[in-house]
Design brief:
The structure is a homodimer. Chain A is of the alpha+beta class. Chain A has a single domain (2-78), classed as Alpha-Beta Plaits. In chain A, 32% of the residues lie in helices and 30% in strands. Chain A has a 4-stranded antiparallel β-sheet with strand order 2-3-1-4, covered by helices on one side. In chain A, a hairpin with a 2-residue loop joins strand 2 (32-35) and strand 3. In chain A, helix 1 (14-30) runs antiparallel to helix 2. The longest helix of chain A has 17 residues, at 14-30. The relative contact order of chain A is 0.26. Chain A binds chain B through residues 4, 6-8, 10, 34-38, 52, 55-56, 59-72, 77-85, and chain B through 4, 6-8, 10, 34-38, 52, 55-56, 59-72, 77-85.
């Protein structure tokens, strides 16, 4: 399933900047960055549960926000893009 | 239908900052800001087409990015939130 993950981390403090880097790193490991704080991740339920657990262990729930959007398996019909950074297909085979 | 709109606007220039303000203003008029650059908008197809037209007239497609995610009518099952800013129901009646 495709899970869209968006986040807002309060970066007015040094610890906030550190949390932001950690959240981004976790997401980079699990999916495709499509915008600064927006990732599309193809995950099975177990992988999602693990990522969610890690992310929620990093953020400060009083000041930071995480949102998950479940786009299912029919996600290709649910996404439109305009502008910079061309779209990609996370199910495509990587050609080297 | 619920349309999730996310954007990245290049704000390294004054004109970029102006575009960002204009994009945010259009989105605020049409939906609920759930994160800094993430809006959830309950729109019919005509309203969506109009908003899309306005947004794409504002951004610079060479440097800025807009993404639309169509969460359909069954969107409540597709969203999870963690942390700051409590969730809300855009279909709720506003009580004053």
């Amino acid at each position: 399933m495709l899970v869209l993950i968006t986040y807002d981390v309060n970066v007015t403090t040094e610890s906030g900047k550190s949390r932001l880097r950690k959240v981004a790193k976790q997401c980079v490991n699990c999916g495709q960055r499509v915008q600064n704080s927006v990732f599309e991740c193809l995950l099975d339920p177990t992988q999602f549960a693990q990522l969610k657990h890690r992310l929620e262990g990093i953020v400060d729930p009083k000041t930071d926000s995480l949102r998950y959007y479940f786009l299912g398996s029919n996600w290709k019909k649910r996404i439109e893009h305009f502008g910079a950074k061309s779209t990609y297909d996370p199910e495509d085979v990587l050609m080297i």
